[in-house]
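During data preparation, we tokenized the protein backbone, and the record follows.
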Amino acid sequence: MKIKTLNGSLLTDGCSSLWPAINAPFLSLRGIPTAAVTGDRYQAIFKGILEGFDAITGCEVKDLYKFAHYLQSIDEDVPSELATLVRAFGKWVAFDYAGARNLFKTHIQVYPTDVQAIFFLHMLDFCTGRTAELKPLFNFCDGYMEESHPLYSFYLGIKAFVLCESGLFDESLVVGLEAVRRNPDNIYAIHAVAHALHEQGMWEEMRDFLEDTKEEWIRNPGMRMHVYWHLAITYRKLGNPEAAKMAFLEFYALKQDRFAKQDLDAVGFLWRLKLEDIDDHSFDEVWKELAILWSGSIGSSTSHFHNMHAAFAFAGANQPLLIEKMIAESDGFGVEPDTHQAGMDVMRAIACFARAEYAQCLRLLSCSQSLWPMLGGSRAQRELLSMTQVFCQTYLSMQSELERMLVNH
């Protein structure tokens, strides 16, 4: 049952009802308009929460502590729509991810149509390698969510991405396309559709979809680089390397500033090229720049998904010493134990790759493979690890065959 509050808003909408004007066009993900003006102190608190949330999804210790400081400044006089969320974020920044997850779920049990809160939980899961675990929650929320809800398209977009990460690619595509149909500006839904198409290898459909919707997604500062990454990969898969290279150069130029931490996609695309031709040096200067930019994450990140990309950047720049330094600085702080073990194995594997020790790289990747989802990110992004495996396997097979031929001759 949907219970009305005194001002007529739906209690089940939770924090999403506190500031409708800011929620309606987007979900917070580095996209709060600079001109956004809060109307009361609760909206001001909510804005601070949105800004802090955007920052901590980068998984940097400094941002987590800055947000913790902000949360401590919030007095106890907050509306019920925010109270449990403030506690949940308090657990998140204290690295108690299970506690944060439970509090987010507690809030959603009370406010099952609070799409913003669902997104908070979804991003916590994304950062900590539990994205698919959100799927059962939709069965509960579906019983309350109405198509007339102003954030229904965003709800479907989140659901589509979770379905994709759960391996339900066909269902994900249907839900994602419906979300885009309802709101063509919903970049999170566009991104979910791209992931569903990627997982099914529907490259022609991906190209057409992303080109047709480009006018919408290219305007979003928070996710346009990632969607462009999908388009660059698509052109590569379709055998159009020039279009792929142009797409890469265009999305790399979209960084907010030179030192903005938006290089996951650049690393992800260039590593694919390196695996296709290990002797190609056309992007050596970009690799050097990426290595410099990622060096700041050594010892400061709580995400082995980010550390994985940093390691690839260092390997691409032929700097295995930086990977070894990152391994030495990684003590598991802020990371769940199994995730830490998997992350360490992955970093060691990439260090081996950088030293051309492909047999050891393959062994380490194979040992940790079942734990890769715990690193965080998406299937498409973690695909770099399986592609690296294939490279090592192919290289070692070729070496073995060459040695056999030499013996026979």
